[in-house]
Amino acid sequence: MKINKYSALGNDIVLVEFSKNDLIIDNSAIHKLLIQKNIKYDQWILIKGLIDNQNHFEVTIFNQDGSTAENCMNGALCLTKHLENIFKNLNEELSIKTVFGQWKIKPVNEEKYSVRMKLPTNKRLDNLPKETNNLGQYRVALSNNNNIDFSFINIGNPHAVIFSEDIASDPLILWGDDLQQSKYFPNGVNLSLASIKNKEAMHMRIYERGVGETMACGSGACAAVMAGIEQGYLNHKVSVIFKNGTLNVSYNQYNNIIEVIGSANYLGEIYT
Asked: If DSSP codes are grouped into helix, strand and coil, which group holds residue 86?
């Protein structure tokens, strides 16, 4: 077993590799190992078969609290960087099997990587409040009797998106914590706050279920772009600006495909 750590815009990702010669260790044991080694991360990704076969492997994604996650686009960027480090001549697009479908990943240049995915046919959940406004948003009452209006987007994992003029002052953690207790999201939900700069750029803060506020989130960027396009705020190619950098998101509504292009950094080997 090998454990390496990467970062995408400050979103720390731990990659755990298994080969056919490794003893089977359950996911909870790996989670405990990461805690014992005091490794700080947002998500960790289990990779099966990577050492043995470049062309056939799959991944499972876990949050900081040990819960599973269906999608992690920043994790996919880090995985692409990892494959480039291992195989050196990674020139073609590879398919990575995930719980919800597939990532299509490839290097773009020396610093940037691409992740594409076909979105689920059903982008929404049935278990949502019926009250909506003319923007297709949903309203939920919080524990302090305040209401928030948000767009809901499912891109394999669930996202609530709020557009705001002052995301720095909005109580992201308070709202995020509250939504995790909502009857509408029994498995939790990611919350994105987005401030639109123009039709091709916006700033974002993100609360990830099972983690809390994080520096960046690729799937959250995708969800915010999709919601912004649906509401007429954004074009189909958008720069999503986080505190530590930018992700470029392209959404093809006709083919139901979304692409993220961004950077990833290698932080070192943790365990082998």
From this structure: helix
Same domain, 103 and 150: no
What's 39's DSSP letter? -
Is the residue at 126 inside a domain? Answer: no
Name the pTM for this structure.
Answer: 0.93
User: Residue 104: pLDDT above 90?
Assistant: yes
pLDDT digits (tens, 9 = 90+) for 125-135: 667 777 677 78
* CATH classification at residue 208: 3.10.310.10
Tokens, residue 195? 């401030």
Structural domains of the chain, count = 2
End-to-end Cα spacing for the chain: 6
> Is the confidence at residue 180, as pLDDT, over 90?
yes
The reply to whether 240 and 162 lie within a common domain is yes
> DSSP E strands: which ranges in the chain?
2-8, 11-18, 43-48, 58-63, 68-69, 94-97, 102-107, 113-118, 138-141, 147-154, 158-163, 190-198, 201-208, 212-214, 237-242, 245-252, 257-262, 265-271
Amino acid of residue 224: A
